[in-house]
Amino acid sequence: MNGDATIDLSVLIPVYNEAENVGRLHAELDEVLRPSGLRYEIIFVDDGSTDGSRARLIAIQETDPEHVRAAFLRHNAGQTAALSAGLDLSRGAILVPMDGDLQNDPADIPRLLAKLDEGYDVVSGWRRIRQDKMLTRRVPSLIANWLVAKLSGVTLHDFGCTMKAYRRRVLEGVRLYGEMHRFIPIFASWRGAQVAEIEVHHRPRTAGKTKYGLGRTFNVVLDLILIRFFQKYAQRPIHLFGRIGLWSLVFSMMTFGGMLFFKYVYKPPKSFVETPLPMLTVMFFLAGVQSILMGVLAEMVMRTYYESQHKTTYILGEVKDGTRSPLVPSPLVGEGQGEGAA
Fold this sequence. Notes:
With 342 residues, the protein is of the alpha/beta class. 44% of the residues lie in helices and 13% in strands. It is built from 10 helices and 9 strands. It has a 7-stranded mixed sheet, sandwiched between helices. The chain has a two-stranded antiparallel sheet with strand order 8-9.
């Protein structure tokens, strides 16, 4: 992502098969943003649509070339990849991603910006009243959001809401993989960013088909495991894999001892082949050795990552000394722990 902001606001919209919605969405954004006096851009990123969205976006860009930029991915890469492309193309000091299906309300953008002006670095939308199906969307979302908040320590109600507002420096150096875009506020909070949440409107889908299903909840759980790993062990993976390996070796010794006990002490004695203990001994031993070796490899990868890119393992807040005045702040993200993993 280009680090130099040349305009005030970038609105980032991943689009996949939303031909019926993008025209109205542009009209609503124009109605909200044009009177604001902000220098803004609207970046539509077409994620390999097959329904005519490409032609609609080209037409929209040609009618409003001052504010609209349209980018087209060569194939369907997913929402996170499309959003990442939008981030790379953006020029705004403030970045506001939103969905292209009209369920996010453009009228909420001024409210997000007003909250940001109170001194926050990230303002996350909360779809408190959701217009989705109860069993397949709302219940799984409630469970997933509770888990994420509990394990991450970031108390947001709605991590899955695309509509958020970020100061540009929070996203500097961030690389998005998988479906990790929903967890950006977590990474930002871990690095000292001030995160707030406000209620936003959630409108029912009136055209097109939803791309989200129950299976996406499982992806959230897997991504949660990943971010938990980055939070605790990104700089010391040997502590995780080494502990697993050592415990496996302990269990191996215990099963080996049990095997000898049943063979030489227990009456009547049992042959080694009469119990599963020999197999368990070998399995635990091999798992322990492999885990420790995996930890060593992870340490090598981690150190190569930091040292090859001259990254620090800390995040500097301010420096005050006799030669530099006033206080010199450093970016929240870009040189700190694990930023490439977001």
